[in-house]
Recover the amino acids of this structure.
């Protein structure tokens, strides 16, 4: 984990992260790339990840607000570089709290929306099952993954590492300027995935142009154990 002398904006534990990773046509992502960034590629292709996870023990500027500390998040993210820094950008992010979603959207121009959601994580001696659901566009969308124990640490050249390890997030301000934030956490272990299922209407969640992804299958699925995280805004 890198150190940062500045006070963190947000601290939390991100746990049991499902990352379902899909090759995506450049044309879907190019309009969303923040200024000064370029699409990152693996195997010559651009990728986006459907991500569901537990957002736990949340504090903003050191304060934990009752009713807003533990909740699920569901997002669709893609991968970019900025001056050699690998990072992520978001197509859309869902949380169950209207207050959290509105604050992030209005103040930070993050593409958050509020929706009815559930999270269900079951630990067993030999494995873990994580399931996340989201109600949007008149239907329920679901992600579910089963992973085995013990969790393992993938190598730095592995597919799992490429998708799960990023220290930077990027976005675009309302004035069209680049937004940067640093995300600090230790390297994550992963549970080898033995089962995966997704029931998602891409067009309903992300717009009609994303209907082209409706029959797509993920190129890989990662179930990351997660850890404590700290988020630092950068100039």
């Amino acid at each position: 984990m890198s150190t940062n002398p500045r006070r963190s904006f947000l601290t939390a534990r991100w746990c049991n992260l499902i990352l379902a990773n899909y090759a995506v046509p450049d044309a879907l992502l190019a309009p969303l790339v923040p200024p000064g960034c370029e699409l990152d590629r693996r195997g010559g292709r651009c990728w986006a990840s459907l991500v569901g996870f537990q957002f736990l023990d949340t504090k903003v500027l050191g304060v934990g607000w009752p009713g807003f500390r533990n909740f699920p998040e569901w997002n669709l993210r893609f991968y970019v570089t900025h001056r050699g820094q690998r990072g992520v950008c978001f197509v859309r992010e869902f949380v169950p709290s209207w207050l959290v979603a509105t604050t992030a959207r209005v103040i930070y121009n993050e593409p958050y929306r509020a929706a009815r959601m559930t999270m269900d994580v079951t630990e067993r001696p030999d494995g873990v099952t994580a399931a996340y659901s989201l109600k949007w566009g008149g239907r329920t969308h679901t992600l579910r993954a089963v992973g085995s124990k013990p969790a393992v640490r993938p190598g730095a050249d592995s597919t799992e590492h490429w998708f799960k390890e990023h220290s930077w997030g990027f976005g675009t301000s309302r004035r069209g300027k680049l937004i940067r934030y640093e995300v600090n956490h230790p390297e994550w272990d992963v549970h080898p995935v033995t089962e995966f299922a997704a029931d998602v209407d891409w067009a309903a969640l992300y717009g009609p142009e994303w209907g082209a992804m409706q029959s797509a299958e993920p190129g890989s699925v990662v179930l990351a154990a997660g850890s404590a995280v700290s988020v630092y805004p950068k100039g």
